[in-house]
Amino acid sequence: MWVILTVLAPLATKVLRGLGETLQRRNGPNAVSNGLLKAGDLGEKARLKLGGKRRRR
């Protein structure tokens, strides 16, 4: 459980956000890219709520 919360969750958040931004650059905003960005934001909000520090983008 510790590994999931400390390693995999932040990594997944970064990957989802990166994919969303890449799709938006290539194709413009659409449902898929917006969904990926929202999933990345959800991970960021959860980390902040649990007491983590905000990361630079």
Keywords:
57 residues; mainly alpha
How are the SSEs placed, and which strands pair?
Layout (H helix, E strand, L loop, with lengths): L1 H26 L3 H19 L8
Helix pairs in contact: 1-2
What does this structure look like?
The protein is mainly alpha-helical and 57 residues long. 79% of the residues lie in helices and 0% in strands. The protein is built from 2 helices and no strands. The termini are far apart. The model has no long low-confidence stretch (mean pLDDT 85).
- How would you state the average pLDDT, rounded? 85
Query: How many β strands by DSSP?
Result: 0
| C-alpha end-to-end distance | 26 Å
**CA gyration radius, whole angstroms:** 12 Å
Q: How would you spell out the order of helices and strands?
A: HH
Oligomer: single chain
Shape descriptor reads elongated
Largest beta sheet, briefly? none
Helix content: over 70%
What structural class is derived from the secondary structure elements?
mainly alpha
β-strand amount:
under 5%
Given as residue ranges, the uncertain stretches (5+ residues, pLDDT < 50) are none
User: What is the overall number of helices?
Assistant: 2
